[in-house]
Amino acid sequence: MPIEVTTPSGEIQQYIEEQLALKVERLINSLSYIGEGALRIAREQGSYTDRTGNLRNSTGYVIAVDGQIIARAGFRSKDEDGAAFAEELARTTEGKAVLVVCAGMNYATYVSRRGYDVLDSAEIEAKVLAEKLLKL
Q1: 3, 41, 68, 104, 130 from 91: Cα distances, Å
Q2: At residue 101, does pLDDT exceed 90?
Q3: How far is CA 19 from each of CA 23, 98, 107, 126, rounded to the nearest angstrom?
Q4: Torsion angle, CA of 25/75/49/107, rounded to 10 degrees?
Q5: Can you give the pTM of this predicted structure?
Q6: Mean pLDDT in the chain?
Q7: SS3 for 13-36, per residue?
Q8: Rounded-to-integer distance, Cα 126 and Cα 2, Å
Q9: Facing residues of 59 across strands?
Q10: 46: which residues sit within 8 A by CB, 6+ positions away?
């Protein structure tokens, strides 16, 4: 007795696309959660003295899927260089979903090289959350 397909192929394709959209939505939600956690840690645990508030406020994240910016948070400083850099970097990742976390002030690497925690703890937190949420 042969097996006969009775479901129209259009319905099968629609189901697959709906399931894929749900998976992408869950991934974006997970990346947002990871980004918020990293952002919180970067702002709360930065080991440097932030006299002006600029460095902590310049920290933020961008989420992109297939090179399209999906979400952006943080980057509360007047200087938009950090956000522009994060978006530019995220747009170069065609075919992937990415989370880019960065500190937007041009002296952030200088402060980090001096031994201060600018994004180090945030990176560790992001990895821990990613392993937990994404089962890496």
Answers
A1: 46, 25, 6, 17, 21
A2: yes
A3: 6, 20, 44, 26
A4: 110
A5: 0.85
A6: 89
A7: HHHHHHHHHHHHHHHHHHHHHHHH
A8: 52
A9: 103
A10: 55, 56, 116, 117, 118, 121
Domain coordinates in residue numbering, the chain: 9-134
The tokens for 51 are 């006299």
Q: How far apart are CA 22 and CA 28, in angstroms?
A: 10
What distance in Å separates the CA atoms of residue 58 and residue 3, rounded to the nearest whole number?
Answer: 61
Q: How do residues 6-29 score in pLDDT, each as one tens digit? A: 878 888 899 999 999 999 999 999
pLDDT band, residue 111 (cuts 50/70/90): very high
Crossing angle for the helix pair 9-45 and 120-134, to the nearest 10 degrees = 150
